[in-house]
Amino acid sequence: MGLRGKLVAHLEVKCGGELFHDHFNTKPHHIPNISDKINHFGVHEGELGSVGTIIEWRFKYEGEERMAKQVVDHIDKEKKRISFKFVGGDFVDLYKEFKTTLDVEENWISWTFEYEKQNEDVPEPITLLGIAIDVMKDIDSHHHNK
After folding, report:
1. Which pTM was predicted?
2. pLDDT of residue 87 exceeding 70
């Protein structure tokens, strides 16, 4: 089995996709107040909505608090696409490369995880993808129930 992989999840949402793009582009600091899956969000360098901004997420992963530091790699406001690369935190020891991309099309949200594991013993990041899906559901529920 190879060290490179790609996981993709598509989720239909009740709220418009524009809302999700906006949350991850300019308002990710609101997500810990919406989803109990995220304990903390912070900006280390740069400003929200800009490529090159370094951000930090803290969340429960398999019962323990974990941290992921990412750089905003690409923003396409027209296509409603945002990509992040892991640059620090608890997962850089497991993956040589790890890029996540959020795509929005009308009422469909897609997360794509592209990664290269350090070795064969490293698990596929299915648990991380599950957390991302749960966060999307929490955001959708939060806004749909208003």
Report:
1. 0.93
2. yes
